[in-house]
Design a protein that fits this description.
single chain, 247 residues, alpha/beta, Rossmann fold, 7-stranded parallel sheet, 8 helices, 44% helix, globular
Length: 247
């Protein structure tokens, strides 16, 4: 129970890897605010962990919605110790086919959402003497994948934002790190693996020889939220089983 008495917000926390991170935190004793546009089956989590799960309908691209999210963490659980900026969308397509609307929506959710949540979380974290911010990027933030320009650009920016925020917030007792997942048997990774044509190209690049198990990402997310990671700051941690790549 390494996160007993800690309060975490996980954006995009009702499905995919966000849900995995929320479940991992709950298993370690934390109280978790699952923030998302849609609750999906979050009631199942609440039933398994009574009194430690709260769903907050949130649009991370809206300052007002994000402010309400931070206020809710304080009202429901008494404060905030860990923020996980996981909410993200992917509207992949070649540059020629990507509309301005899709580009702007991707940047707004994946990058601006992380900025707005981080900015709003700082005073709430400071009230508890500091805390942890964990951003979520992607393996394609540093690797070329045709048809993912908007998504890749947004995630690369999240990694640079992580480093900048770590330098700025360290004096406030707040560490900022980034998780960079590879292909997991959950969320977008599961969708990629389900496409035989795409997986024939990318599957052989996994040194582990398999998709990651969701719990393997959850364990790393827990590590970054605990005292075991007290001297880790401004780091982008790739969790991908050893992923080879070529342009």
């Amino acid at each position: 129970m390494r996160l007993r008495d800690r309060v975490a917000i996980v954006t995009g926390g009702t499905r995919g890897l966000g849900r995995v991170i929320a479940e991992s935190y709950l298993a370690e004793g934390a109280a978790v605010v699952c923030a998302a546009r849609n609750p999906h089956d979050v009631e199942e989590l609440a039933g398994t962990h009574p009194g430690r799960v709260h769903f907050q309908k949130t649009d991370v691209t809206s300052e007002e919605s994000v402010a309400e999210l931070m206020a809710t963490a304080t009202d429901v659980f008494g404060g905030l110790d860990v923020l996980v900026n996981n909410a993200g969308i992917s509207r992949d397509g070649t540059i020629r086919r990507t509309s301005v609307a899709d580009w702007e929506a991707t940047i707004a959710t994946n990058l601006t959402g992380a900025f707005l949540c981080t900015r709003a979380a700082v005073p709430v974290l400071e009230e508890r003497g500091g805390g942890r911010i964990i951003n979520v990027s992607s393996c394609v933030a540093r690797r070329v994948a045709v048809g993912t320009a908007a998504y890749s650009a947004s995630k690369a920016a999240v990694e640079m934002f992580t480093i900048s925020a770590a330098a700025e917030l360290a004096p406030r007792g707040i560490s900022v790190n980034c998780l960079s997942p590879g292909y997991f048997d959950e969320g977008m990774g599961r969708q990629v693996a389900a496409d035989d044509r795409v997986w024939a190209r990318y599957g052989p690049r996994l040194l582990a020889g398999r998709l990651g198990r969701p719990g393997e990402l959850g364990a790393v997310a827990v590590f970054l939220a605990t005292e075991d990671a007290s001297y880790v700051n401004g780091h982008v941690l790739e969790v991908n089983g050893g992923l080879l790549w070529a342009a």
